[in-house]
Write a structure and sequence with these properties.
The chain has 98 residues and is an all-alpha fold. The chain is built from five helices and no strands.
Amino acid sequence: MATQPSPFDQARDELFQHIMRCGVIGSEVEHMKEWFDETMAYLAERYHELNKKEVADLRTLGERFAAPTKKVEAAQNQGSATESGTVDAGELDTVSAA
């Protein structure tokens, strides 16, 4: 017999679905903050069983879920160094020496 998910689990799942549907991932920081402010107010009202800490924990989970991965950020910061898809012989020497 399956158990019912807790209100926190339900709210978390709903938040993640909203994030994916609403295009929050990759949005500007100020837009993301505004979206989370409004969405968390909605979820706190919808899931009145949650206390303030649980709502704050949901927001933290949601913000982490919506944030780009560090690997993607690192690749973007490297710029065109890896865009060609080729590796110079000097680069291999550097890797081999390490």
